[in-house]
Amino acid sequence: MILTVTLNAALDITYRVPRLQPHSTNRVTEVSERPGGKGLNVARVLTALGHEAVATGFAGGGSGDALRSLLAQETSVTDALVPVGGATRRTVAVVDEATGDTTQLNEPGPIVTPAEWDAFMSTYRELLVDARAVALCGSLPPGVPVDVYARLTRAARTADVPVLLDTSGEPLRRGLAARPDLAKPNADELAALTGSTEPLRAARDARRRGAHTVAASLGADGMLVVTADGAWQAAPPRRIAGNPTGAGDSAVAGLLSGLVEDLPWPARLARAVALSAATVRAPAAGEFDRGTYEELLERITVTEHPAAA
Questions:
Q1: Quick one: DSSP state of residue 186?
Q2: Residue 88: which pLDDT band, with cuts at 50, 70 and 90?
């Protein structure tokens, strides 16, 4: 199975309004709730690809109960979330139907106590026994040390389980020092880490900081992968219109599934880019449009970078 870790899971709430009017009363025409958080999105895509996925992290309070109930109803993801006393955060997205723009409000998450952290670590180590790969994803809730992804990476490496790290800021910086097998920042996160806005240079810098491989999401321009053996880049054959929320999470699922299937890097990269683009056409994060995915997968061209080969 593939293990995903979402320390700051969320109950995603989406409001749709005919037109968002600031400083005024807005009437909501539609409300939806979904389990949210990067690792949960990754797990849902993995199961849609036919892989067994187990999701761990924290969940608590009424919002945590709602998240777990929805997760059980919607997917075949195995729930291994650890209970906490605080309430799982909510993220509120307000969709302006007139413009298609989305306004996002994200709560910080529950405060995690030392005892709750110890309970999570015990669960995490037990799950690593049967894991073929693990993804460490997203932001950290209050009370969790900033070097936590470095600790989780070292535990996975001790268990001989490959690690993918998908976070940002100081947790990313600290996590890289523990030498994850793969780091997947987006272009902005990579630039903030390295100070360089040139993706190839920045990705090579991130590798020197500890990651064995760096896969940089470049938005509509696809993805760049830099390994010890070379670098490849791929992009969709055309621009895909839609909502990009969750596209990076689908790319993570593509990279992880390619890893456990032992695909060569160009094939992993093509799958990740096709899934990412197909998610733009899906109604919500953690989903992808299968027709778009299958069509794009046959048409993506992967190009090697001679300068990094």
A1: B
A2: very high
Edge to edge, the sheet with strand 182-183 lists 78-83, 53-59, 2-6, 133-137, 163-166, 182-183, 213-217, 223-226, 231-235, 301-304
Nearest to 242 by CA among 104, 95, 47, 138: 95
- Contact (Cβ atoms closer than 8 angstroms) between residue 156 and residue 164: no
Helices (H), the chain: 38-48, 61-74, 114-128, 148-158, 169-177, 187-194, 199-208, 247-260, 265-280, 290-297
Q: List Cα–Cα distances, 18 to 25, 29, 103, 254, 295, in angstroms.
A: 12, 7, 13, 35, 33
Please say if the pLDDT value at position 261 is more than 90: yes
pLDDT, residue 309, reads: 40
**SS3 category, 251:** helix
- Please give the torsion angle defined by the CA atoms of residues 158, 9, 122 and 83, in that order, rounded to the nearest 10 degrees: 180
Provide the pLDDT for residue 293. Answer: 79
pTM tops 0.85: yes
Which residues have C-beta within 8 Å of that of residue 149, sequence separation ≥ 6? 136, 165, 167, 171, 172, 174, 175, 178
> Does residue 92 register a pLDDT over 50?
yes
In whole angstroms, give the CA distance from residue 189 to residue 204. Answer: 14
Give the model's pLDDT for residue 306: 67
pLDDT category at 242 given cuts 50, 70, 90 is low
User: Residue 86, Cα to own-chain centre: how many angstroms?
Assistant: 23
Q: Is residue 229 annotated as part of the catalytic site, yes or no?
A: no
Instruction: Identify the active-site residue in 221, 249, 262, 289.
Output: 249
